[in-house]
Design brief:
The protein is α+β, with helices and mostly antiparallel strands. It contains seven helices and six strands, in the order H-H-H-E-E-E-H-E-E-H-H-E-H. It has two domains: about 70 residues, no CATH class; about 120 residues, 2-Layer Sandwich (Alpha-Beta Plaits), CATH 3.30.70. The strands form two sheets. Strands 4-5-1-6 form a four-stranded antiparallel beta sheet, with helices on one face. It has a two-stranded antiparallel sheet with strand order 2-3.
């Protein structure tokens, strides 16, 4: 009965064994080596010749009205930088150089701070150009901040002067004690705000990041090796398949 079952089982002549795969691979190993080494060499060349790029960062601290409170909101400053001062500079640059600025400038506000970061990614050869652009934008921001500080100071000084006059007028009244106390308290609050005001501070201009941007050279070489390995195996078997098809067509 068992012999009959064995005879009835279908025989598959087209099955491929691991030995067949290994034989085919060894037969076409030159194709594998050629693809692997050419891809690896291309990856090494790209990693070596890839231009270095760094982040160049400028950092300013906005003018403070008092501790943790800023005369102008960071979001409003960034909107002005993105939609007014940077486009104005881009127009001037295009008119002078007949081309666009060869790098981008992005603006960030770290959460819960009054800091504005200007960041540009470029090669070291463009550092001076980045410094010039950042310095121009910082100058525009500085002028706007100085004007805002001056305006707020004048407003506070006028209010303090008005309160002082009001206090003098009320001092002659017998029943104005509560009003005088309220005026004194308000004047002290305004004076404290005036004394705690701080101008905008430039912390750094176009500082180069410590680490290079982009993938590491070792990672590029590793990926090239993996790509060459997979591509070499695939092309080795594809070459053998094409050879077998060609041989069968020539026989027929």
């Amino acid at each position: 009965m068992e012999d009959n079952n064995r005879r009835n089982q279908p025989q598959y002549d087209d099955e491929i064994s691991l030995v067949d795969l290994a034989t085919t691979f060894l037969k076409r190993r030159r194709v594998f080596y050629a693809v692997l080494f050419s891809t690896l060499l291309a990856g090494i060349a790209y990693a070596v010749l890839m231009p270095e790029r760094y982040d160049y960062v400028s950092l300013v601290k906005l003018a403070e009205k008092d501790s943790g409170s800023y005369i102008e909101k960071p979001a409003a400053i960034i909107a002005t930088l993105e939609n007014r001062w940077l486009p104005d500079y881009q127009s001037t640059y295009h008119a002078e150089h007949d081309g666009s600025i060869p790098f981008k400038v992005r603006f960030e506000n770290p959460e819960n701070t009054g800091l504005i970061r200007m960041v540009s990614e470029a090669s070291p050869s463009q550092r001076e150009s980045i410094k010039q652009v950042h310095a121009q934008l910082i100058d525009e921001l500085s002028q706007a901040q100085s004007a805002a500080v001056s305006s707020l100071k004048q407003n506070l000084e006028r209010q303090i002067e008005s309160l002082s006059s009001t206090i003098k007028m009320l001092e002659g009244s017998t029943d104005a004690g509560a009003a005088i106390a309220a005026a004194f308290e308000k004047r002290l609050s305004l004076e404290a705000t005036l004394n705690s005001m701080r101008p905008m501070e430039v912390l750094t201009v176009s500082r180069e990041s410590a680490e290079r941007k982009g993938p590491a050279r070792s990672l590029i070489v590793l990926l090239a090796g993996l790509l060459g390995l997979m591509g070499g195996v695939f092309l080795a078997f594809l070459t053998e398949f094409a050879s077998m098809v060609k041989a069968q067509m020539s026989e027929s």
